[in-house]
Design brief:
It is built from 17 helices and 27 strands. The chain is globular. The longest helix is centred in the C-terminal third of the chain and has 21 residues, at 541-561. The chain folds into 3 domains: 3-27 and 472-573, 2-Layer Sandwich (Aldehyde Oxidoreductase, domain 4); 32-137 and 195-286, Aldehyde Oxidoreductase, domain 3 (Alpha-Beta Complex), CATH 3.90.1170; 293-466 and 583-738, Aldehyde oxidase/xanthine dehydrogenase, molybdopterin binding domain (Aldehyde Oxidoreductase, domain 4). Helix 6 (222-233) packs across helix 7 (260-270), helix 13 runs parallel beside helix 14 (541-561) and helix 15 (629-648) packs across helix 16 (703-718). The relative contact order is 0.13. The strands form 7 sheets. It has a 7-stranded mixed beta sheet with strand order 3-5-1-12-9-10-11. A 5-stranded mixed beta sheet has the order 7-15-14-13-8. It is of the alpha+beta class.
Length: 744
């Protein structure tokens, strides 16, 4: 085996699926076909909140080509949910569920029936012919209104519709405010964000050759999908199989169920393949979104720039079901005071039930909302103190041994100061030994309607599951051959949702076993082939699956050296345990590892139209160790552009629980013409003490600082703070005109 074919950690291996995806050969769920397949369409709720009194399927069943119509009474255990099983698979009478009020729809995306027919067109027509009788119930669409006494209850077990309430009580607030010489206050508000992944929800259910109910679908955790299915159908685990083909993006939008359970239900009952493909409109209307969050914040600092007190109230709109709200709002609670060591903190964070569309996981997972407030407050303090924004950060950022807001030290490997400094020097800043940090002003265009400004922000993002949620990852390594290792089989189920995880898995296995890349075969994306690797979320796959693969490889290599042929070893990696918030003080050990990020942004603001153009982004990211640098850079660039959409463009409009712009022609996401002129990816490698080869997870980090950095740059350009996302031209113009800026 020639040395030049050997693989090392840090090599820029081309993505294994690159050619098949570029040529169109890669099969996504919508591409998978089975002979004799039927088609499914869903009937969604017609109400935001109502009891389903009756479902009349007579006219629909009479339509030629209709095979079967499933309703709530057909689901053995009519309940599901990623964190808590609080949502019916289908809503209606006759439900067998532990969820109180399973006959009640609580938002427009609830399912009432699933129609299976000989063709997609017939199924769609039949779904419209179903007559549903409702008993309307009072609805509530504002989290603040939902928390008021006497508001309509979404679930009987949640007084005042509060799904979760987290507190942080650190230090002595009275002493903190007494020491504060400068106080700044702000109110921040973020909107929904649609995941807009490439392929809308699609899948195929069938019975495989071993008699298992099999679902081919796109998701983020095959074993979690499997659990949701076998629970709802009342089947043994081994009777359900989940397979992912190519996945057209996810970003958290595929963590919760969409079509998995209803496809399995139909396949199990009909014993024929059943297929479904959602339209883009269905996708936008019927999967969860990023949480809209409002934050009221008050920070105090001394004149030398040391933050001594921070208060905040954080309210997030959960929609009517948990999904991952309890975890997302826990993360917002942790990040809303930023990567700063502050002695005195008082935080109240609420996840509130409403009749809006459910909200759940989205890249950053509560961190972008928290960072908008934390970095907005820090930039306001810099302005109030006439201090450079990098200088004030360097006087407050967390360091090795710093105590977090939750009263415990950050895990070892804190690199926030180094990341801030590197971002500063790679962009617009310089450090003077006498004056500290300062930055040059943006060069202004000749057009008087255009203003340029520069902004800065930073943040930290957890790696892996938080707050006591069980964290683990399994991998198996098989070494085959006689004298030399001729083939390495890796069994690791972690989902590649487009980020290149499978390439990294194979690269790590090759490096750990000392073989060429072409000798490694990955068996993943199939519950029948591998044990759980956990979810493709929480920036965890490289870290968690990497440690599992590395551990399995070490065991297998020991067996190989003992001349065991084949050498097969399985390893379960479990990181240090985390703990939940103390309900009164918030004290906890929330995470076992973090990644650290800082960004500098230059924007151009048209004061006539309110249009913001992101000109340049410098993103410094500590990834611990870049297993594949080009894939890391791709993640940074993609993340920055997605965050740009969140910051200035993506305005999902919901009126009384109904989405009014469910099309990519009216919900605008960045195109190639919108991306910055430059995204400068600065990759730093301060090894994480427990990461595989030192690697940290990093796919979400670049999202967190972008919006607050843009807001700071807009202020630098115009002198106006804009604290509502997205910063659409209409909002920018209104804010500028309020300050007398721009041409009337």
């Amino acid at each position: 085996m020639s040395q030049e074919n050997m693989v090392a950690i840090g090599d820029n291996i081309k993505r294994l699926d690159a050619v098949s995806k570029v040529t169109g050969e890669a099969a996504y769920p919508g591409d998978v076909e089975k002979e004799g397949q039927l088609w499914m369409k869903l009937r969604y709720s017609d109400r935001a909140h109502a009891r389903v009194v009756a479902i009349d399927t007579q006219n629909a069943e009479a339509l030629p080509g209709v095979v079967r119509i499933f309703t709530a009474k057909d689901v053995p255990h009519n309940e599901y949910g990623l964190v808590t099983k609080d949502q019916p698979v289908m809503c209606g009478p006759g439900s067998n569920s532990q969820v109180p009020g399973a006959d009640t729809v609580r938002c427009y995306m609830d399912y009432v029936a699933a129609v299976v027919a000989e063709s997609e067109a017939i199924a769609a027509q039949a779904a419209k012919l179903i007559n549903v009788t409702y008993e309307d119930l009072p609805a509530v669409f504002s989290p603040e209104a939902a928390m008021e006494e006497g508001a309509p209850l979404i679930h009987v077990g949640n007084p005042n519709n509060v799904l979760c309430h987290y507190r942080i009580r650190k230090g002595d607030m009275e002493a903190g405010w007494a020491a504060a010489e400068v106080v700044v206050e702000g109110e921040y508000s973020t909107g929904y964000q649609e995941h807009a992944f490439l392929q809308p929800e699609a899948g195929l259910g069938y019975i495989d050759e071993q008699g298992r109910v099999t679902v081919v679908v796109a998701g983020q955790w095959v074993h979690e999908d499997q659990e949701q299915i076998y629970h709802a159908l009342g089947l043994p685990q081994e009777q359900v199989r989940v397979v992912y083909p190519a996945i057209g993006g996810a970003f958290g939008g595929r963590e919760d169920m969409s079509v998995q359970i209803v496809l399995a239900l139909a396949a199990q009952n009909l014993r024929r393949p059943v297929k479904i493909i959602w339209s883009r409109e269905e996708s936008i209307q019927n999967h969860h979104k990023r949480h809209p969050v409002s934050i009221r914040a008050k920070w105090g600092a001394t004149k030398d720039g040391k933050v001594v007190a921070a208060e905040a109230t954080v309210i997030g709109d959960a929609g009517p079901y948990n999904y991952t709200t309890t975890k997302v709002m826990g993360n917002a609670n942790l990040t809303c005071t930023g990567p700063y060591e502050i002695l005195n903190i008082h935080i109240d964070t609420y996840g509130v039930l409403t009749n809006n569309i459910p909200t759940g996981a989205f890249r950053g997972f509560g961190g972008p909302q928290g960072a908008l407030a934390a970095e907005g407050q820090m930039n306001r303090l810099a302005e109030a103190l006439s201090m450079d924004p990098v200088e004030v950060r360097m006087r407050n950022v967390i360091r090795e041994g710093s105590i977090a807001s939750v009263g415990t030290p950050f895990p070892k490997g804190v690199s926030m100061p180094e990341v801030v400094e590197k971002c500063a020097v790679e962009s617009y800043w310089a450090k003077d030994s006498s004056r500290g940090w300062s930055h040059k002003k943006a060069q202004q265009p000749t057009n008087p309607a255009l203003r340029h400004g520069i902004g800065f922000a930073c943040g930290f993002k957890n790696v892996g599951y938080s707050f006591g949620f069980p964290e683990q990852s399994w991998a198996t390594i098989e070494l085959h051959g006689k004298g030399d290792i001729e083939q390495v089989i890796v069994r690791a189920a972690g989902a590649d949702v487009g980020q290149g995880a499978h390439t990294v898995f194979v690269q790590m296995a090759a490096a750990a076993t000392g073989v060429a890349l072409e000798r490694v075969k990955l068996m993943g994306h199939d519950t029948a082939e591998a044990q759980t690797s956990g979810s493709a979320s929480a920036s965890r796959l490289t870290f968690m699956a990497g440690n599992a693969i590395k551990g399995a490889a070490e065991l297998a290599m020991e067996m190989w050296r003992r001349e065991e042929r084949p050498a097969i070893a399985t390893y379960q990696y479990q990181p240090p345990k985390t703990t939940p918030y103390d309900p009164m003080t918030g004290r906890s050990e929330p995470n076992f590892a973090y990644g650290y990020v800082a960004q500098a942004v230059e924007v151009e603001v048209d004061i006539e139209t309110g249009h913001i153009r992101v000109v340049r982004v410098i993103s410094a990211n500590d990834v611990g160790k870049a297993v594949n640098t080009e894939l890391v850079k791709a993640q940074i660039e993609g993340c920055v552009v997605q965050a740009q959409g969140y910051a200035i463009m993506e305005n999902l409009i919901s009126v009384e629980g109904k989405i009014r712009n469910p099309y990519l022609s009216t919900y605008l996401i960045p195109t190639v013409l919108d991306v910055p002129e430059e995204v400068k990816s600065v990759v730093l490698e301060y090894a994480d003490p427990i990461g595989p080869w030192g690697a940290r997870g990093m796919a979400e980090m670049p999202f967190l600082p972008l919006a607050p950095a843009v807001a700071a740059a807009v202020f630098d350009a115009t002198g106006v703070w804009i604290d509502v996302l997205p910063m659409t031209p209409e909002r920018v113009v209104a804010a500028l005109r309020k300050q007398g800026i721009g041409i009337l």
